[in-house]
Every structure is written in structure tokens, then in C-alpha cells.
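::Amino acid chain::
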Amino acid sequence: MYKLNKESKTLEEIHESTFENLDLKERKDIQEWICKEPRILGEELLIIAKEFDGFEGTKERLDLLALDKEGNLVVIENKRDDSGKEVNWQSIKYASYCSTLKKEDVISIYKKYIQKNKLDIDAEQSISMFFDDESIPYPTDVQRIILVAHTFRKEVLSAAQWLFDKNIDIKCVSIIPYINGDEVLLDSNILLPQEENKDYLLKIAEQKAEYNKQKKEVIKAETEYSAFWENFGEKFSNKEKSRFKGRAFVGNLDAYISGCAGIKLGPRFGFQFYTNKSGSRIQLVIDSAKGSILNAKMYEYLFSKKDEIESKITGFKVEWVNNQGQSSKRVLISDVSLVFGEDNYDKICDFFDKNILMFENAFAPYFDHLRKLYNDFDKNK
């Protein structure tokens, strides 16, 4: 690695080092970096456990447990400078232990992680907002493995390649420290899977799609939600239906419709009506097209008007969901008694009909300022 001096047009070599020489530890340092910035592993991950030892019948503990964007559980095993010879077997054991975890287990594990690390977030809401589609079912029946080390032994890479060829989703990531004066720079490289192995990734993706397609719950959801939306459409004017025209139904029995309500600041920015087996809610999703910094500014501005907004919303507790560490934010009202089901179709529709305009109007006076924040954002960078 080299540092470029543009003026003199010279290159200054930046020397590779080791974590041992830098007195950096496996758990105290490297593991904490991954927790705070999992994208160093080459993808977006939601860390839900650290040093997890909740497996029945064994005291073994895995380094990190995460969810990926497809709802898969990801076992992350971290070594310092040398991968060692047993890391493959160690990670396979942990992945097998995780194969029995259900949705309620994942939520419970994440709640303990949140509590231990004193994070100001709600476990279920944080998981829901992590996914690009809030209604992705999790965990799937696929357990992934990510191995992390400075250097990997040949026997580890050979075994990992063989596992990958057998459709075990395993990835090897090399994190390399460099010295630049008083600075320590890190570079990460995905050693496996390599570019030529993309056909295997495609095969895994097809298997996941087939698995989800065959699940009986999906078929049930499609039938139930088709009936609900038909009933919903009959209750509102064409004008109301045309504005709230997006809808979705999926295997974990979540459904929502959305409408921009005249404020277009991003593909997901706007109002949503959401109903599932946990109740029904109306929410404002603060998710602009310009990223997390602007989303935070918009949320902070609306939160500064909290008392004014809440004074216009009667009969409900207003929930402000900041989702620290994640891009999008939400403000919502809900009725947990209105769980999705045929017996509640009319009540759910009435909940929407009676409250959507009240909820929207509470925010309407602040839309002009939100637009100004949106339009001025690029200028103020």
C-alpha cells in the first residue's frame, strides 16, 4: 500500500504490520471494530450477540452472531493474526447450534445484547428497520459463516473452498493492519468466495428462493391478504385508494400499504398503514433518498415539535422510533388489539379510516421545513 503525494508526484510506502506487534487484541479490539462497523466484512449485517454462550448442553461460545439482509443467521468467528487450523470446525459447530433458533429466540438474544450494551433501541423494531423490506421472515433455514483473520492457513482456505462448493455459505475475510506514522490503517479483503465462484452464490440464492416459495405460510398469507385488500378497497373512495396503492403480503403475515401524502423526499419517505399478527399501526417513515445524516436531521426537527404534534393526535400514545445506528426513523400510533385476521377486517379498516388524516395533519405544518432541509442538504455538505 502506498500514500500518494500529489504535489511531488511521489509514493510513500505504508508498511504492513501485525495486530500482535500493535498490541491489539482479538476480543478487546478487533471484535469491537466489527460490532461497530460490520461493513468491514463486505456487507451490511446487524450484530445481535457477542460472546454468545446460550447453547443447551455446551459451554462453548461463538464470537459474534448477526442477521444478514436476507434474514439468515450469520456466525462470525474472529482470529487475530493467524486463523489457526480448527476455525472451520469451530464455526461449523456454532452454525449447527444456531440451526435450531426460532424467531422468538433471535429476538430474545438481541434484547440481551441491547441491554448489556445499553443501547437505546427496541429489538423487534431495530430488526424490522434493518431489512430493506420490513416483512422479511427471519431466521431462514440457512446459517452462514464468516471467518475473520489477518492471515489464513492454506488448510483453512482449502476446507472453506470445499464447504462452499458443497453449498455451505462460508466467507473468509482478511483484515490487514498498516502503519502510517502514528496512524493504523485497516484493509479488508474477501479471500473466499472469489469472483469465479459467483455461480455457486446463484445456486444458493435459488435454493433460498425455492425454500421460501414452498413454505405453506406464504400460501396462507397470499390468500388471507388478497381477501383483506379486496375488503379494504371497497371501503374507501377512489381518491383514497389511488394515494395508498402500494401493498405487500409475505410469509410472516405482515402487510402494509403506503402513500406519499404530497411529500416526496425519497422512495420510502411517507406514511404507511401496517397490519400483522401483532396489531395495526399508522406510521411516518423518515427515510429520505439522501442518507442517514439527513434522516437524523429531519427526525430531530420533528422531535423538537413533539409536544405540538402529539397535541393534535388524540386517543393514542405516539411512539418515536429513533433506531440509533440505522438510517431510517419512524413515528407511529398503533392498536395492538387489532391483530390481522378475518374477524378484524372491518375494525382494521375503521382504524385506518378514522385516524390516517388526523395523523397526517399533525405533521403537515412541518413539511415545508422538511423540504427545505432536503433541498439545502447538498449545498451544506
